[in-house]
């Protein structure tokens, strides 16, 4: 690669000019001295520590999520006055994911979640042909539920298996994360508790044709403090279908923040018994034994199929394993310059008649036009000559390749125009590393130009590390300095 730095010193000695319409003979001896600085490059190899490409999203991840939302056991109670409501639920999730593609991966892990419901049985219920223990009279027992609030809680451990998707646009720090999967789950703790239970009992005696509600068998009873007002629920294992969707923010090279929503629902009925095997509704205390025992609203024959579900918002952290830098033999150019001086002697004789002496100006060959064309090419390239890179990367983006394609097209219009490919880096990192990174960026652009048909003899590779900041302040700090600038060289005098 040659670069002309100094060109042409002309020394002339002319003869004597005579006048008065005489023939003038002028003798000239010109000495042309050309000093050329020749730049040589030698391709060598050396060992360097090569860091993983920061734009590569493939590999191993550890994901930790915490969620809060609305959860319920997902069942109903028959009767127009009965209702089941959900409550606040929580989710804790830890899992491993492997992204085999830039965007796609699979995950497996463990979660802990709870579902809480409040059952409110209501209405009037009758037990026909009951026996009065005192008079042995037959009667119909009538129970009118006035207030009933029963809290039911289950805690599950699940094994989520998911297909995951993540997408971060080029040169952006935020994108999308989504997951869809199934989680076999097992109940590890269940409980029901009657927080409020008020029932008015009365009896209709057909033999007397009257209803009694103020004797010792009857009246308004409270059941929240009975021995059976607290108990356990029985549930079978469930297969929960779940989905996550939200925003993914890249905090550092290894850590991403996830903020979004989640939902899961059991695909199978969680009841451990069939509806025919469940207990009819009933109440009893230590005084009365004629009623069926109460085992919780969830186990009553009036309870419908149960599909526990929850939905809410979650926040999480994804840690990406990035391998340590590895030693590798890389190619590099070693540059040297040397002066090359040449001399040329030119002798010429001009004859002229002084009375008819005319000055003739011969335009310099390709002079002004040549300069104008070079100036035009420089202005065209200047409008898009800054090629930007991602943090800690020398990989060409699609946008960068389009810019270089335009530069190659402009340079193809004049094969004599030479350029400098100048690499730069931001101040983040050590100076020695930034020098290497800026050189790799410049070589990446030069290699792409050569691949587009630009003669390598027209290219000069330079790198400046983080020592030359970008004067363009429209881009954010640091990002504007991760660049390569393509500059058209000034024309030397001997071209």
Brief rundown of the structure:
With 495 residues, this protein is mainly beta. The protein has helices at residues 367-382, 398-411, 431-451; strands at 9-13, 23-50, 59-72, 83-99, 104-120, 123-131, 138-158, 161-167, 174-205, 210-212, 219-222, 230-231, 238-250, 255-266, 309-320, 326-353, 386-388, 419-423, 459-463, 483-488.
The CATH architecture of the largest domain comes to Beta Barrel
Mean pLDDT: 83
CATH class of the largest domain: Mainly Beta
Q: Main β-sheet: number of strands, strand sense, barrel status?
A: 13 strands, antiparallel
Enumerate how many helices there are, as a single number.
3
Structural class: mainly beta
Uncertain stretches:
1-20, 356-367
Taken together, the total number of domains comes to 3
Could you give the distance between the termini? 15 Å
What CATH calls the topology of the largest domain is Porin
Q: Please trace the helix and strand order, writing H or E for each element.
A: EEEEEEEEEEEEEEEEHEHEHEE
Sheet-strand content, in percent, reads over 45%
Give the overall shape, derived from the CA principal axes. Answer: rod-shaped
* Cα Rg: 45 Å
Strand segment count: 20
Helical residue percent? 10-25%
Salient structural properties:
495 residues, mainly beta, Porin, 60s Ribosomal Protein L30, Chain: A, 13-stranded antiparallel β-sheet, four-stranded mixed β-sheet, 10% helix, rod-shaped, disordered N terminus
Detailed description of the structure:
10% of the residues lie in helices and 49% in strands. With 495 residues, the chain is mainly beta. It folds into three domains: 1-41 and 336-362, no CATH class; 59-320, Porin (Beta Barrel); 363-495, 60s Ribosomal Protein L30, Chain: A, CATH 3.30.1330.60. Strands 3, 4, 5, 6, 7, 8, 9, 10, 11, 12, 13, 14 and 15 form a 13-stranded antiparallel β-sheet that branches. Strands 17-20-18-19 form a four-stranded mixed β-sheet. A three-stranded antiparallel β-sheet has the order 1-2-16, with no helix packed on it. The longest helix has 21 residues, at 431-451. The two termini are 15 Å apart.
């Amino acid at each position: 690669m040659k670069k002309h730095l100094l060109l042409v010193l002309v020394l002339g000695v002319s003869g004597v000019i005579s006048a008065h319409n005489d023939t003038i003979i002028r003798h000239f001896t010109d000495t042309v001295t050309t000093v050329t600085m020749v730049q040589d490059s030698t391709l060598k190899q050396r060992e360097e520590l090569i860091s993983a490409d920061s734009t590569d999203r493939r590999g191993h991840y550890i994901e930790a999520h915490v969620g809060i939302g609305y959860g319920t056991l997902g069942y109903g109670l028959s009767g127009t006055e009965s209702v089941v409501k959900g409550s606040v639920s929580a989710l804790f999730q830890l899992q491993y994911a492997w992204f085999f593609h830039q965007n796609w991966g699979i995950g497996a892990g463990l979660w802990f979640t709870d579902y809480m419901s409040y059952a409110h049985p209501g209405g009037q219920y009758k037990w026909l042909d009951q026996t009065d223990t005192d008079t042995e009279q037959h009667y119909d027992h009538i129970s009118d539920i006035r207030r009933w609030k029963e809290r039911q809680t289950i805690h599950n451990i699940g094994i989520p298996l998911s297909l995951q998707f993540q997408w971060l646009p080029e040169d952006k720090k935020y994108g999308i994360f989504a997951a869809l999967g199934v989680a076999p789950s097992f109940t590890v703790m269940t409980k029901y508790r009657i927080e409020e239970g008020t029932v008015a009992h009365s009896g209709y005696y057909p033999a007397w044709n009257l209803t009694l509600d103020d004797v010792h068998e009857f009246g308004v009873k409270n059941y929240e403090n009975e021995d059976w007002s607290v108990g356990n629920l029985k549930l079978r294992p469930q297969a929960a279908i779940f989905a996550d969707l939200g925003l993914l923010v890249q905090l550092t090279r290894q850590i991403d923040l996830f903020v979004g929503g989640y939902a899961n629902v059991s695909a199978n009925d969680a009841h451990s018994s069939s509806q025919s095997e469940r207990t009819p509704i009933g109440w009893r205390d230590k005084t009365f034994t004629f009623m069926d025992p109460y085992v919780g609203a969830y186990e009553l024959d009036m309870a419908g199929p149960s599909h526990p579900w929850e939905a809410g918002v979650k926040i999480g952290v994804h840690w990406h394993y990035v391998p340590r830098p590895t030693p590798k033999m890389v190619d590099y150019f070693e540059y040297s310059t040397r002066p090359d001086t040449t001399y040329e002697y030119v002798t010429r004789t001009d004859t002229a008649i002084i009375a008819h002496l005319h000055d003739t100006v011969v335009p310099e060959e390709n002079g002004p036009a040549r300069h104008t064309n070079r100036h035009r090419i420089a202005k065209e390239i200047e409008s898009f000559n800054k090629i930007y890179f991602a943090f800690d990367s020398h990989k060409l983006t699609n946008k960068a390749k389009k810019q270089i394609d335009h530069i190659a097209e402009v340079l193809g219009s004049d094969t004599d125009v030479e350029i400098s490919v100048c690499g730069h880096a931001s101040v983040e990192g050590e100076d020695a590393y930034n020098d290497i990174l800026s050189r790799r960026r410049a070589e990446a652009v030069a290699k792409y130009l050569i691949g587009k048909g630009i003669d390598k003899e027209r290219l000069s590779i330079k790198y400046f590390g983080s020592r030359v900041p970008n004067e363009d302040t429209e881009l954010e700090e640091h990002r504007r300095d991760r660049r390569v600038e393509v500059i058209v060289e000034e024309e030397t005098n001997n071209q």
